[in-house]
Amino acid sequence: VQLQASGGGLVQAGGSLRLSCAASGNTFDITAISWYRQAPGKQRERVAAILTSGRIEYSDSVRGRFTISRDNAKNTIDLQMDSLKPEDTAVYYCQVDRLYGPSIWGQGTQVTVSS
Fold it and tell me: How many CB atoms lie within 10 A of CB 98?
């Protein structure tokens, strides 16, 4: 599995961005799809995830503002980010957990929210 993330950029506080992660290769054993972020000097945190059961999870810091979605036809995992705050500034990564192999990470995409 390979993941290619896109859609980061610079936006003012209160604005929106949409991140997209394209998956290629053998995706049959993916058990969860997640978006993580890592701000300078902070630990990487998971902000949103879709499990194969259909369950969707969000971190408390983004719940109600971010929406994760999956397009099976396009093999993409999107993260719609609304009402962005300066504290959302981070490098964002898409990640998949697999049943028969190690987790796979995409390259990061920078999101910068100016106040």
Answer: 16
